[in-house]
């Protein structure tokens, strides 16, 4: 997402912090694959 060349695509994530996006994705996939509900507990 952050290395994409398309400006319209960047604008979708303009208010996102890269580190927060990485954490959200990590916790979401851990939970989705049967791990602890880290994402749900934080959101």
From TrEMBL:
Entry keyword annotation includes Metal-binding: yes
* InterPro entries named among the record's database cross-references: GlbO/GLB3-like (IPR044203), Globin/Proto (IPR012292), Hemoglobin_trunc (IPR001486)
Report which superkingdom the organism of origin falls in. Eukaryota
Q: Which UniProt keywords apply?
A: Heme, Iron, Metal-binding, Oxygen transport, Transport
The Swiss-Prot or TrEMBL record annotates one GO molecular function as: metal ion binding
Q: What is this protein called?
A: Uncharacterized protein
Q: Which species is the source of this protein? A: Nymphaea colorata
């Amino acid at each position: 997402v952050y290395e994409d060349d398309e400006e319209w695509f960047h604008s979708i994530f303009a208010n996102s912090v890269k580190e927060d996006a990485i954490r959200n994705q990590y916790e979401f996939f851990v939970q989705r694959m049967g791990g602890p509900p880290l994402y749900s507990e934080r959101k």
